[in-house]
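Record copied across here:
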Amino acid sequence: MRRLLLVLLSAASLALAAPPKPRVKLTTTMGVIVLELEPQAAPLTVANFLKYVRRGQYKDTIFHRVIPGFIIQGGGYVDYLGKKRTDPPIPNEADRAAAMGWKNRRGTVGMARLGYPDSATAEFYINLVNNPELDFKSKKNDASWGYCVFGKVVQGMDVVERIGHVKTGHPRSDFPNLPVKPVIIKDAVVL
């Protein structure tokens, strides 16, 4: 009994010693979404995202890519598709995150990027469904590198779902997945 008590106390002290995971609140025109970030799985990616949050990068940006049954993506454009300036791209940590069990599953948050692995800056996406095709597979080529998952939605998945069902195909845009009525991130703050 005493040994069991010591094991439980040791486990409890380790749990208390672990720092809390950072959380970010996105206030959108459709409701609030709270993200919990995973710094152990993707430390550079989380630091990059928090840097953008703290400096107000996401304020008044839009979800410019909404694909039902896939993802919602935002953080890079303001209304009428004015592109926000960003810092240089960060290294892709998809391999590290995947090794720790972080995959592109429903409700997880990942970094959007261009066609090559180390090209993510500020844009992020939230998975509406499990998307294993976005997961890290190997470092053999750009396509197999995948997209880095760095957190998950802990509040407001209903808001994410509503955003994922808005009407898209804005008439003034060559962005086919742009919502007809802008879905705006009014503010993003670290909790």
User: Anything to note?
Assistant: Confidence is low (pLDDT under 50) at residues 4-8. Residues 2-17 form the longest helix (16 residues).
